[in-house]
Amino acid sequence: MEGIQALVAQWAAFGGFGALIAFIVNILKSLGLVKDDQAATWSTGLNLLGLAGLFAVGVYAPHIDLVGMDEQVQEFVVVGLVVFNYILQLLGAKVAHVAVRGTPVIGKSYSK
What we know:
Layout: H1 2-13, H2 15-30, H3 39-60, H4 66-100
Helix pairs in contact: 1-3, 2-3, 2-4
């Protein structure tokens, strides 16, 4: 039983993997694939899948540096958030442009 408790504690300490799960769930929510009331279920399922993956790596490939991998995943999430937010900003700007097009002052356009 101590081995399972150690795995759960190790999984809980991996901030990068936790951030990746939150990132994935939020993207799925933004795309409309996951509803707000389903997010906790998705997060729980992905965390359970991650814990199973951690257990499999611990048994079949204990030489893999999971701490180093977690740090890389965390950096990926940071870059992914910047890119995703940039894309949302561009899409939001297009929607805003369509919404105010033709409105005096803020919707004025000199292009044909």
